[in-house]
Fold each of these.
Amino acid sequence: MARIIPSPQRGLNTINLQRFADNSDKTEKATPKKRQDLRKKGQVMQSRELPANLILLILFLTIRILGNYIYRECRAVFQMFFTETSTFSLEEPAEVMRLALFVMLQVAKIVGPFFLIALVVGVVGSYVQIGFLFTLEPLKPKFSNINPLKGLKKLFSTRSLFELVKSLAKVIIVTWVTWSSISGEFTNMMKLMALEMGPLALYIINAALDVAIRICFALLAITAVDYFFQWRRYEKDIRMSKQEIKEEYKMMEGNPEIKSKIKQKQREISMRRMLKDVPKADVVITNPTHFAVAIKYDPDKMPAPYVLAKGADFMAQRIKDIAREHNIHLMENKPLAQALYQTVEIGQSVPPELYKAVAEVLAFVYSLEGKNPLDKS
């Protein structure tokens, strides 16, 4: 009877081991262009908790500093309602308006400083993080956000786990700070029984403000740690692959292959234009095989002889062939041909240090042809 022997690899064959591998090839930091594109879309690194916690801390500190001012303004409101309302005639519109203006003024005096502080801290906190940014891109509806599968993926992601741990840490730290602050006041609680209502209320308010300020400092410490992890996560999320960087470079600078072809085409056009000018030359100075430089002396254009064309190897041979076709003299002078090719560009005058050598060549050619370029007759 045949026996079926289970293969030890059978179990592994049913598992796709690639699932456990990191297939992400986004290992490069985001380029400035990608950061700018993300910024236009409103996708920037920003902690909304940092300005909120700063606002809370500064507001509580403000209450602590401006406590007497707030007490005076609130007392003025209550005194007015309890002692002076009888003097107002609610049947007279002018009196009602005066009462309303008084109430609004007092409320503005009390709430105004806190509103301004919250506004300034919120704006400065956001500006320090991301600078000035105005975009309506985040307000555009995205149908991918209502995808239930994507929502479930976010619900059970490491990011959700991190947020849960952060929330638990906040609860634990806030509870510990509150308990440690209150426990330190246990010895003073027995003394509170002998205090009158005013001092007792003042003591409770000061104690509550101290606890609130300590909690705010603790929340800021958590926010600083959270900001660091958010920054790392953001940098990881916007990473790019090497291929993406290449594609971006192609978009910004143009395709290198296309640019190379354009440059090659430009060189070909320049070479054709240069070869068309060779028949105008007075002489072609050669190496004799490696270099060829076509010289022209035209006093109307330049005060000194200038280079019409030049070339090396194959291009030098082309220049010499054209010169022979048009009966242009070829003069062999290795040092002069080399010097002209290396130091003078097409269309430029011969440098002063080469005047004498070029003049001797031109004088010899002119003597053969029996002409003088300075003779206008």
Amino acid sequence: METAQTPSAPEIVVIGAGGAGIAAAHRLQAFGFSVLVVEASDRIGGRAFTESETFGFPFDHGCAWLQGPGNLPYISAARSAGFTLIDHDDPPGALFSGGTRATPDDVARYDQAASRLRQLLASHADDVAASSLVNSGDRWLAAAATWLSAMDHGVDLTELSSADVAVYGAYAVNALVREGLGSLVEQFATGLPVQTGTVVTGIDWSGTGATVRTQKGDIRSQAVIVTVSTGVMSARSIRFTPDLPADVWQAFDDLPMGLLTKIALQTDGARFGLPENAFVTRAVDEPLPAKAAFFLSFPAGYDLCVGFVGGSRAWEIEKAGEDAAIAFATEQLASILGSDIRRHIRKGRMTNWGSNPWTRGAYAAARPGRHKARAVLSNPLGDRVFFAGEALGGAYPALLSGAHISGDAAARRVANILAAKTS
């Protein structure tokens, strides 16, 4: 698919039509540059993807929360386009222990454990594995750690960098999008020159400018912004001429993709006593990484319980396949709410970011001791090759807001460098 006004000889090529690529293209167009965005898949949005075919209402396979600073342009874009933002800054919770609702004392213990855990990791001066700081013998601490590591970062505690936790900034906005965050991202890209179904195989930056080699032919430009995932980069899917410096390749390898798999279960309208938009959590009595699914109940009022499985368990469940995943999530929900819920489940769907060749995971997570790899990739190569994406999202890694901030920043660097060359 090609959008209107696709230039044949762009000044700048942006690789990837996800949040970072869309932000970069918007900024460069605002500066008056000719831009072409090339995207390997057949759609716009990257890891922001909403579809309604499965359940008959929007389901976000990828990012679902609009989170980050208050000046994020997606906020005003959502309101002007008539999207419904559901505040999720202080979401309801439903905590369970052994198949029954947790007592008020247990809820207090869980809240205290979660708060202590975040404070401990965020205040730790060194970049170490989070597992070295956590005693998971406490069932409530283990539950909080499962959310923080496997589900928030997509990796187990042993693979979670304490520095990745410490870097996060405050949220001025934290909202679900009733119509789907992926739909909002697609809407935000309206009018941009995007060419989908265009697989980039190489980038030649040996001379002045850069040549982007694709399966549809070569594209010559003054500069290129690469926004593909670290998983795609580490797979060496794009060949660089000359080859990238060793420290750049090492930085990509030090930012492997974590995985968060969603297993969405559609119900027949039964609500099981759960509120809408609630996080459903159980005590973790097994060793970490727990073989557990936690849930978001009835997001935006839809008849859906979305199960989350992260880290090594997510890779296992995705490899087992969708039928096994749906059965697993159903059993997990039944263990929390009772076996009667099985008769209320109508349909399920599993996401598959790990096996997606254009992502190879959900979002990047720095290896313990390797958090500085993010900074390495923020530097341009030869004033011609620039990198951007959620992995370089500053205070908002793994989020759409981080991808946007990174893409916008890369575009500004490109503009400044090209302007200096012509002055």
Amino acid sequence: MGKRNYLIEGVSGSGKTSVCDELRRRGYHAIDGDRELIPDETPQQQPSLSEAGPEGSVARAAWMHGQHVWDVDKVMSQIGYKGSEMSFFCGGFRNHGHVIHLFDEVFVLDVDQETLRRRLALRDHDVFGGQAEEQEFILILHNTKQDIPAQSTVIDATATLDDVVDQILAQCA
């Protein structure tokens, strides 16, 4: 197992990718899980959109969200990386129950609803959270907190990016 491993979670639009980029800029080992840890699937292995519900529906957005998983073997490989004092895994994934016990701490980026709406409005339409029904679903997740791992440390992600990263690093010290 790596020296210390941290998970940075939160709903879409909470700032996980920005935090990952800033940690990297500061020289930390940070993995953008939503890009680097997704499974390598063949078209035959991919779930069918016919199960998802009508296009443009919140049900389809919920289904798409539920399909977002990380490759557990890739996560395990990165957790075993010993070349850094700390490793940060940034992103949300629905199968976190398989590996969450391997993280030294889980940080959840949290923003108020107004900030979240503003951030989602800036998303490209081809990115999850860029469509109206996806934004509606994300706001439901934000309000219910149903997707947040138990035993996590909440970080106020409405602060500046530097302050958010400083808060995380202070918790890791």
